[in-house]
Amino acid sequence: MSMSEAVTADALAAADQIIEDFGHHHRDAYFARFSPQATFMFHNVGRRLESREEYEQLWLEWESDGFTVISCTSTNRRIQLVGSVAVFTHDVETVSEVAGERSTSQESETIVLSLTGGTWLGIHEHLSMRTNNAAD
């Protein structure tokens, strides 16, 4: 395996761990995989979240309403390396529950990771609604 392939594999493993932690509602482990300065943009939130702490506070509010992630499935995956930055894009199907009511969402997501001190950490996450397009 070349050095570039190894770096790509490490970045992909970091993205996979973010998805794994999210999909099993491992809140603390999930947030630990993001830089404290990370930003977040979600279609269901009316503003950009300017830090990991801001997102953590919102997550706690969601949990107080009974929010739990049941599963998260990643497909149509691609990772691009640009120096010490990796851009991971994929389609994601998330099953969650709020106050006992289960729902499934179909979304597209970008996670930007930065290699910091030998560890890949998320520095930005963007989640958009995915539409089914017959031309796909």
Automatic annotation (TrEMBL):
Residues passing through the membrane, by range: none
Pfam family, one: SnoaL_3
InterPro entries noted in UniProt: NTF2-like_dom_sf (IPR032710), SnoaL-like (IPR037401)
Annotated ranges, domain SnoaL-like: 13-129
Domain of life: Bacteria
Name of the protein in question: SnoaL-like domain-containing protein
Species of provenance: Cryobacterium levicorallinum
Highest classification ranks of the organism: Bacteria, Bacillati, Actinomycetota, Actinomycetes, Micrococcales
